[in-house]
């Protein structure tokens, strides 16, 4: 049974690596342990961490941090077209992707090397290179913290949007995701049209396309332009790519012909990294807080930056993009 610890540093369990502590902390490995720990919560604020890859602590957390350690991957059903794979919310996401690739389960290969846990994947509908969680999602189980019950959420229930779900708005802070079931294809449908995947596959000399080849191409691309959080603290993409109406995009395109954008619903999704770079932030460093030289979308901690310093830098970036382009960036990272 997991035991509550007091005044625990969150630095080792988060990828930004800033100095902050939790008043109380405990990991849990199953639903019974989670229930028992919640019984000791009292009136203390609660935070549940998975991989710790999408959070920035700007202060100590005067509450209870629970660390999701529910693991396990199993195939629970299949039909002629799909295989249904359930994974514990505390499973490492990239490890889960590699499991699927190794077993020929197609659909998540484009999401290779994204940091974080399985439980976080539907929370913000993670996506990369033309694929989002909603494309492979079947259902999830989540424990309602206040009412102490286990609920099942379908694809429709989650109301997925661009880096959004009900767990980031309507039900924020109300549930702990304990498991996620994915519907994966037995026969792949390859997605190579986004980013530099085709170029990387050619560089790799791939003659016959496979989910393994695509996974490795994505790993190569991400490794080349994104810092390893174990060496340079970061949380991946710090900002969302903003969406604008076609009218606004047309105005921006006329003023900035090289602007990078992609069709999205009835408008256009702008590349936030491009906007930030045009404002001169790429490679910027103040003390140990900076904007990564290879990808402007990533804010980094070079070792001793505080969460407050990184947050302040993000605010300056938001203000400059707003002033230059009339576009308001939103933080993708959760700020505490």
TrEMBL record:
- Reaction(s) this enzyme catalyzes, per UniProt: UDP-N-acetyl-alpha-D-muramate + NADP(+) = UDP-N-acetyl-3-O-(1-carboxyvinyl)-alpha-D-glucosamine + NADPH + H(+)
PROSITE patterns recorded: FAD_PCMH
Under the heading SUPFAM superfamilies, the entry gives:
FAD-binding/transporter-associated domain-like, Uridine diphospho-N-Acetylenolpyruvylglucosamine reductase, MurB, C-terminal domain
KW Flavoprotein (keyword) present: yes
* Plastid as UniProt keyword: no
What main location does UniProt list? Answer: cytoplasm
The free-text function statement in the UniProt record for this protein reads: Cell wall formation.
> Which HAMAP family does this UniProt record tie to the protein?
MurB
What is the name listed in the Swiss-Prot or TrEMBL entry for this protein? UDP-N-acetylenolpyruvoylglucosamine reductase
What organism is the protein native to?
Flaviaesturariibacter amylovorans
Name of the gene encoding the protein in the UniProt record:
murB
